[in-house]
Structure prediction request, 139 residues.
Amino acid sequence: MIENGQVAYGFDVEVAGDFEAVRGRVVEALKGQGFGVLTEIDVSATMKAKLGRDMPRYNILGACNPVLADKAISAEPDIGLLLPCNVVVSETAKEGTTKVSFMDPVSVLAIVNNARVTELGWEVRAKLEAVRDALTSSS
Prediction:
């Protein structure tokens, strides 16, 4: 269920600009908050290659803030099963607009039931919200 740009496990924003331009802005905004992109999955290219299916552009960026990841792994060694933070950049039906969706680390990390991890989840969420806000303030 999506309500006001939020689902139970994430939040999103529509950004003015074509897919490649917005993707680049997302990567730069993530860097500004101490994240690097460790992985990138081009879902639309994979669907085309494996299933012959065309779909709008859809990339999953695996973002990681090494300082916060280190704290999380120190608090809960198996937390790597829930890392990195995924950010999805996807084409919308509205021309000139790209959707950026963020995993909500508070929701996702709640399953760990560890107070130190929960606290880190809030810190990561604030940084991801800052990325979202940077995208909307610069559009």
Notes: Residues 10-137 form a domain with the TATA-Binding Protein fold (CATH 3.30.310.70). The beta strands are 6-7, 10-16, 36-42, 58-64, 85-91, 97-103. The CA atoms of residues 27 and 37 lie 7 Å apart. Helices lie at 19-32, 43-51, 66-75, 105-109, 115-137.
